[in-house]
Write a structure and sequence with these properties.
single chain; 654 residues; alpha/beta; Rossmann fold; GMP Synthetase, Chain A, domain 3; 3 domains; seven-stranded mixed beta sheet; five-stranded parallel beta sheet; 30 strands; 33% helix; globular; binds 5'-O-[(S)-butoxy(hydroxy)phosphoryl]adenosine; Acetyl-coenzyme A synthetase; acetylation; EC 6.2.1.1; ATP-binding
Length: 654
């Protein structure tokens, strides 16, 4: 985060107390929230045990709430059995069978609603289809689909039979898909022919074919949901149309009851080193976190239309499109496309037409819509909205105020929710009927979440207004269980820094005089580009895999819409390219990164130099590169550089 942004956040003094009209109807007011916090503080484990008994439908009740004997591999509710899909669907069939579960709108304007009964029937048909293909409990299934209800159906169908799903965001390339298939050892891929995005067709079937041509030998079958109907290649031995598979399946499929610790899903995310990590989530603890946070943070009620704009390829789409709202019996909205098709009013038009009451999106989208101008939201009736949310990166006070003023008409609460792929559910957020908000602060931890800030030696910082590492000091039910296939990495990435005492989130934060948390951003080599988490090392290895590249260093550069953009410094084999040759190679490298990872990882800037700035011990000086990327005057001491002369070249001045 740039220093001017930090200053604007630190100078933020505005406070917005909950409005009485909201408090009156809210699930939690200040008194109830205090009572929950007090209960959790008094008996952390007992508190979560009570929540789990109250909120989750167990087939076999648990008797052990927390097993910490193998810490930091914690286990929650481990002798209980349940099924996530039965919690999301079957338990609503009585009272809410004809209630709309999903309202869907495609980018081209096609729309369809699914009731809980219809959703249940379709999930059962697909689950039976999976069983007929020999998929059983514990098998891994990759889901590579557009944002259509079928993506949620695929997740729920896996959960129903105890198969472990791993959703791969449709914007990731064939190469990334292949890596994930191989790391999970998946037997099956559920894909679509394509998805509509930004007026184009994303050819998911072709990417699947490419991924499987280059590896992924564990995959036996590919189920293809027909969405875009463009012509696709077909491998008759391997590929099955979704509609053909489901045509003969029964609408009844008994859920497979799994242990609470049975993995519900794997979701890959970037870290500071190596390949993306397969974050493993449990069934019982995860579902509890997704479920209760919907009630506490979103005040979710039966008459809400809940729209979380995240793709199901990200954890936000898992917890707040698929599992959290459906386990609460809510109506969700799913939209396939981008916010700017056909124009910048699309999101607000959807809110009007579908009567959206809760709207949850990312700061990068808010900034883009803010830039498009106030005239777009002004065209539409947003009066059904009652709550706004933000997630994915720190929201700058300017964007917060715009959201508050133009979308919230200065009346709606804004919940700025801090959490991570690893945490499974929201960890810090205002509770809208209870917590006064401040623009740019995620305010306070939710009940049962023991957040803290520690210094370099791992001492908790009690003093307010002093920054440090954001940590969680007690296990919580929806925490990740491990990294798939690499428990050592789980321990080294999240626990080892402070001798297994704290979960280390990878963010820095500080608290103000009211004890409110302000997240300052990542402290590791992880970038947050338009709310997408990318490892600098991943992009560097993608660049270096190009035959012309000798070495690459990637840093983030502040960007007014995306938050951060990717800036790459590259040295080439052979002479340093210049002029038209440099332009052509830049384009080639950008395309190469898109092919290796996905278009979201393309560098906005590439600068060629003869060398990278290294210390005499050979370490790349990233701090210096970050300053250069920002265009700052270099005032740092570069005397320790092995090659101080290179700085002018890196800065584009030679
Ligand atoms: C990282 C996690 C789970 C949410 C989607 C992103 C940043 C997330 C906030 C927020 C400040 C935030 C952090 C975090 N982040 N929400 N409200 N305020 N920063 O999940 O891809 O796992 O990324 O996103 O840096 O560590 P993710």
């Amino acid at each position: 985060m740039s220093s001017d942004k930090i200053e604007s956040v630190l100078g933020e003094k505005r406070v917005f107390p909950p409005r009485p009209e909201f408090v009156k109807k809210a699930r939690l007011d200040a008194k109830k929230l205090d009572a929950l916090r007090a209960a959790a503080d008094k008996d952390h484990v007992g508190f979560w045990g009570d929540q789990a008994r109250k909120n989750i439908a167990w087939q076999t009740p648990f008797t052990r709430t927390l097993d910490d004997s193998k810490a930091p591999n914690y286990q929650w509710f481990d002798d209980g059995r349940l099924n996530a899909s039965a919690n999301c669907l079957d338990r609503h069939l009585g009272a809410r069978g004809d209630k709309i579960a999903i309202r869907f709108e495609g980018e081209k304007g096609d729309a369809r609603n699914w009731t809980y009964k219809e959703l249940h029937a379709e999930v059962c048909k697909l689950a039976n289809g999976l069983l007929s293909l020999g998929i059983t409990k514990g098998d891994r299934v990759i889901i590579y689909m557009p944002m259509t209800p079928e993506a949620v159906i695929a997740m729920q169908a896996c959960a129903r039979i105890g198969a472990i799903h791993s959703v791969v965001f449709g914007g990731f390339s064939a190469a990334s898909l292949k890596d994930r298939i191989e790391d999970t050892g998946a037997k099956l891929v559920i894909a679509a022919d394509g998805g509509n995005r930004g007026g184009n067709i994303i050819d998911l079937k072709k990417a699947t074919d490419d991924a499987l041509a280059s590896g992924g030998k564990t995959v036996e079958k590919v189920i293809v949901y027909q969405r875009t109907k463009h012509s696709v290649n077909w491998d008759a031995k391997r590929d099955i149309w979704w509609h053909d598979l489901l045509a003969t399946q029964s609408e009844r499929c008994d859920p497979v009851w799994v242990e609470a610790e049975h993995p519900l899903f794997l979701l890959y995310t970037s870290g500071s080193t190596g390949k993306p990590k397969g974050i493993q989530h449990s069934t019982g603890g995860y579902l509890l976190g997704a479920h209760v946070s919907c009630q506490w943070v979103f005040d979710l009620r039966d008459d809400d239309v809940f729209w979380c704009t995240a793709d199901v390829g990200w954890v936000t789409g898992h917890s707040y499109v698929c599992y959290g709202p459906l386990s609460n019996g809510a109506t969700i909205l799913m939209y396939e496309g981008v916010p700017t098709i056909p124009d910048a009013g699309r999101f607000w038009k959807i809110c009007q037409e579908h009567g959206v009451t809760i709207f949850y999106t990312a700061p990068t989208a808010i900034r883009a819509l803010m830039k498009a101008g106030d005239e777009w939201p002004a065209k539409y009736d947003l009066s059904k909205l009652r709550l706004l949310g933000s997630v994915g990166e720190p929201i700058n006070p300017e964007a917060w105020m715009w959201y508050h003023r133009v979308i919230g008409k200065e009346k709606l609460p804004i919940v700025d929710t801090w959490w991570q792929t690893e945490t499974g559910a929201i960890m810090m957020s205002p509770v809208p009927g209870a917590t006064p908000t401040k623009p740019g602060s995620c305010t306070q931890p939710l009940p049962g979440i023991a957040a803290g800030i520690v210094d370099d030696s791992g001492n908790l910082i009690d003093q307010l207004d002093q920054g440090g590492y954001l940590v969680i000091s007690k296990p919580w039910p929806s925490m990740l269980r491990t990294i798939w296939g690499d428990n050592d990495r789980y321990i080294s990435a999240y626990w080892a820094q402070f001798k297994n005492k704290y979960y280390v989130a990878g963010d820095s934060a500080h608290r103000d005089a009211d004890g409110y948390y302000w997240i300052m951003g990542r402290i590791d080599d992880v970038l947050n580009v338009a709310g997408h988490r990318l490892g600098t090392m991943e992009i560097e290895s993608a660049l270096v895999s190009h035959p012309r590249v000798a070495e690459a260093a990637v840093v983030g550069r502040p960007h007014d819409v995306k938050g951060e953009s990717v800036f790459a410094f590259v040295t080439c084999k052979g002479p340093r390219p210049e002029g038209a040759e440099a332009d052509a190679l830049s384009k080639e490298l950008r395309d190469h990164v898109a092919k290796e990872i996905g278009a979201i990882a393309k560098p906005d800037d590439i600068r060629f130099a003869e060398n990278l700035p290294k210390t005499r011990s050979g370490k790349i000086m990233r701090r210096l590169l970050r300053s250069i990327a920002k265009g700052e005057e270099i005032t740092q001491d570069i005397s320790t550089l092995e090659n101080p002369g290179i700085v002018a070249q890196l800065a584009g001045k030679a």
